[in-house]
């Protein structure tokens, strides 16, 4: 007897590996493995979450009109062209689902966000990996991967897990170099950590160009990761296509209320950005001081640092020792980065602590 067989393209997916929140021996320690906001959530978002209707028997509002309007108001957009998802992860899947299928190609960079490969394979499309330029996005490399089968290009800016950032000019050059029938998806999960001068122009492209979709999330700077709310913006046609395939009640009631309040909590966002700027620079400086051990950080504009272990100590060894010292960071062998650890910026205490632990480990003390 034969059993039903899952699609080969599904079995070709390497499962997503989430960041750990406890050590292997079950201790709760500083979690610097998932790029969450170390300052938590704004008071306003928490209050809105707590005040939201908690009747468990009612479906959420499937059209999320208030959430779409709040997003549109905050960014000067058309609410009808806002798509929302169970995290921006869902929106990335919707973009792949709407524009790619078997026989089509989906391009992303080597060391790009892990979800792009899953999203491409899930719909039976072929992932095409563009080479990096010392871990950063190489626009020319992406453009040289384009064929007549290319349907979607995914780019995260800043990128995760590298933290690297492509300038407005580079993004414009990428868009200008793509055929008009290729959808460029610009994943801006960390956009709020950038200064106004660093705006990559993605949202303007999504407003004016039919072949650009941007995605944003409430999980990172807004500190609402637990409620899983993301959104995207694209042409009316793109958004209509994505609505057809999203899960019908894909954002929770309390999450919608919290997200709306989070958009108004500009002081919290500003404070979180300033905290990140300060401690990202500080940690990068600390890592620069460890260069004699063959350790270096990739320049980052996100809320984490990718630290490369190119000397005697392996990233795996450092990962285990850091765990022992009470710090969970991300070791990424599954993303073909066995030589690297991704360390999220924590509170001041956590950030100072992880740097001191790393120094101690590299110095050979116990
Ligand atoms: C964290 C992250 C997301 C997804 O976040 P959601 O919680 O699904 O909204 C998307 N893209 C990148 C690059 C990320 O790092």
TrEMBL record:
Q: Does the keyword NADP apply?
A: no
Judged by the first EC level, this protein's enzyme class is transferase
E.C. numbers: 2.6.1.9
PTM annotation (N6-(pyridoxal phosphate)lysine): residues = 220
Q: Hey, which pathway is this one from?
A: Amino-acid biosynthesis; L-histidine biosynthesis; L-histidine from 5-phospho-alpha-D-ribose 1-diphosphate: step 7/9
Tell me the keywords, alphabetical order.
Answer: Amino-acid biosynthesis, Aminotransferase, Histidine biosynthesis, Pyridoxal phosphate, Transferase
Its required cofactor(s), as named, are: pyridoxal 5'-phosphate
Q: Which Pfam families match?
A: Aminotran_1_2 (PF00155)
Do you know which PANTHER family this protein is assigned to? HISTIDINOL-PHOSPHATE AMINOTRANSFERASE, HISTIDINOL-PHOSPHATE AMINOTRANSFERASE 2
Name this protein carries in UniProt: Histidinol-phosphate aminotransferase
Native organism is Sphingomonas gilva
């Amino acid at each position: 007897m034969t059993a039903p067989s899952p699609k080969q393209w599904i079995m070709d997916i390497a499962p997503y590996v989430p960041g750990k929140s406890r050590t292997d021996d079950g201790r709760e320690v500083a979690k610097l493995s998932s790029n969450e906001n170390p300052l938590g959530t704004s008071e306003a978002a928490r209050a809105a979450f707590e005040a939201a209707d908690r009747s468990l028997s009612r479906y959420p509002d499937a059209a999320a009109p208030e959430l779409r309007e709040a997003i549109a108001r905050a960014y000067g957009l058309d609410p009808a062209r806002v798509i929302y998802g169970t995290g921006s992860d869902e929106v990335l899947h919707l973009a792949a689902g709407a524009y790619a299928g078997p026989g089509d190609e989906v391009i992303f960079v080597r060391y790009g966000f892990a979800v792009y490969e899953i999203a491409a394979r899930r719909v039976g499309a072929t992932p095409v990996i563009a080479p990096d330029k010392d871990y950063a996005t190489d626009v020319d490399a992406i453009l040289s991967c384009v064929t007549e089968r290319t349907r979607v290009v995914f780019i995260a800016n800043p990128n995760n897990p590298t933290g690297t950032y492509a300038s407005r000019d580079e993004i414009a050059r990428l868009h200008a170099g793509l055929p008009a029938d290729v959808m460029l998806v610009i994943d801006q999960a960390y956009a709020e950590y950038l200064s106004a001068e660093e705006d990559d122009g993605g949202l303007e492209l999504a407003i004016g160009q039919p072949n650009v979709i941007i995605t944003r999330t409430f999980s990172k700077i807004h500190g609402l990761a637990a409620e899983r709310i993301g959104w995207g913006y694209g042409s009316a046609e793109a958004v209509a296509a994505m609505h057809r395939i999203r899960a019908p009640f894909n954002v929770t009631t309390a999450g919608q209320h919290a997200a709306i309040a989070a958009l108004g909590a500009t002081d919290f966002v500003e404070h979180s950005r300033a905290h990140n700027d300060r401690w990202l620079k500080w940690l990068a400086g600390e890592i620069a001081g460890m260069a004699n051990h063959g350790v270096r950080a990739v320049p980052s504009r996100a809320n984490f640092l990718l630290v490369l272990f190119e000397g005697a100590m392996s990233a795996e060894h450092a990962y285990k020792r850091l765990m022992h010292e009470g710090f969970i960071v991300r070791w990424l062998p599954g993303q073909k980065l066995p030589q690297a650890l991704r360390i999220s910026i924590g509170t001041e205490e956590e950030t100072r602590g992880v740097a001191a632990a790393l120094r101690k480990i590299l110095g050979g003390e116990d």
